[in-house]
Amino acid sequence: MALLSRKLYLLGALLVLVSAAGVVQADNDEGDDEATVEVVEEDEKYHSPQINPEKVYLAEHFDDEAAFKKKWVKSEAKKQGVDENIAKYDGKWEIQTPSRKIFKDDFGLVLTTEAKHAAISTLLDKPFEFKDKPFVVQYEVTMQEGQNCGGAYIKLLSRGTNTKADLRKFYDQTPYTIMFGPDKCGNDNKLHFIFRHKNPKNGTIEEKHSKKPTQRLDDIYKDKEPHLYTLIVRPDNTFSILVDNKEVNAGSLLEDFTPPVNPPEEIDDPNDKKPEDWDEREKVVDPSATKPEDWDETAPAQIVDPNAVKPDGWLDDEPETIPDPEAVKPSDWDEEMDGEWEAPLVDNPACAAAPGCGGWLPPTIPNPNYKGIWRAPLIANPNYKGKWTPRRIPNPDYYKDEQPFRMTPIHAVGFELWSMSPALLFDNLIITDDVAVAEEWAQITFMQKRAKISRDSDSVFDRAIKFAGDNPWVYAVVIVVCFVIVGLITYVCCGSKSESESDPKKTDAVGEDDPHASDGEDELQDEPERARKADLEGPEHEPVEVETVSSTDDSAPLVDTEGAGDGQRKRKPRKE
Ligand SMILES: *[C@@H]1O[C@H](CO)[C@@H](O)[C@H](O)[C@H]1NC(C)=O
Question: Which segments show compositional bias classed as Acidic residues (predicted)?
Fold first, then answer.
């Protein structure tokens, strides 16, 4: 019966899959035609973005490969401090359309290689000086194959990278002013904003890392969609970070960075030491306390219950277990190899009706007179001086930089990356001192792209609805598919259970958990009742006894029943 319904399910599932494939095929054929028409329409609308060059320090759409090749410089450097074989910046950069085409003539800069160091950079049209205008950098990243481990951040390179010759040497140690953008490895994902701050007192440069974004940004590494990253740093030392035009982090250069821009005014005096006699113990043992006269440390914790009485009918002379009188020495038992044969132990049937067998021992109870080791009580320490802390002194390295915004001027911008996933696509990079210009640039680039993507996904849905409207049998297929899925789930969850119920001998678990399964006499053929009982109580038995059962059972008829339990499982590998 069960077999028949299973076959029916499989047949039904097959039929539904075949018809569903037909629907998908038909939908695809129609969809493809429509999509082709749409792409042509949209492509006519896409133009590489134009922006007034006066308003920007750099605006790069990567659509003009010839212009890109003139402007951008691939690094010929080697990374410092790594193995010679992998030190070269030999990762490949290509101008390509996205792997999922959005607009026909929209190209991006693609890091096509994985697990290689790769660096590329360009000079700004004019250097950016941090004075009275905000610094704005914005760019798009599409992790076309997702990202497990690797960066997609941008580096704004400091004064000193003023020529193309400098850029050919671009490597991990090239001084940057700001590093910004996504970076991930494993579960650790970051949206960096790091700036390099110059100590006004001694000129040392130190990296300052911004606090974390206010929300987790897991999707940008998974959804393979274009995302827009914007950093705005203002002359009032505030900053904002936007992803897809939504603020995900904001704060102050003076307050939200580690280590902080300005060192603490006071520090612990490194020369101040805790005095020898400084007593930090809040409580001490009461020196005046003495052990009471009647405190007996030797009284035991447990004593024999003086009120316990041996139950009536206790069989002192009967052992709890006896050798199984019905066990037979296996015919292939070899006394030389296997030792002397002994029958397995079974419960002594004489004990079944009695309250107990063997020597009776009265139970033990907690000793009401038990006191344990005496300890003197604790009292407040009269010499307690509190927790010692070193004296505070003015910090000799103290300075106060009120204008961390006044960073080292930026002359170039580049990517210096290592990625475990290939096909990182960068697009529509802009550097400006006007937030409105960056917004305008996003409007004519990123926003167009997102609008096109959502039109495309809408139209797939719309087309499916329209197709179903024209072909009402689609609804029938959908309903049948739902039934089949519910049926399959029911079959998978409940089907296997009913199978094990119908044949309890297949599992030890059923035999142990459910006494009724074994109590059915007819199922157990000619197995003696004692052996079954031993199996039921198997888990409570001493391991030695189980072991005895298994070794003596050797190829006796018992082995073929469920009786031997653990012993049987242990034996099998030996024989095969
Ligand atoms: C500059 O001062 C900082 C402490 O503010 C110190 O860590 C660093 O070593 C100093 N650098 C030099 C070159 O003295």
Answer: 314-323
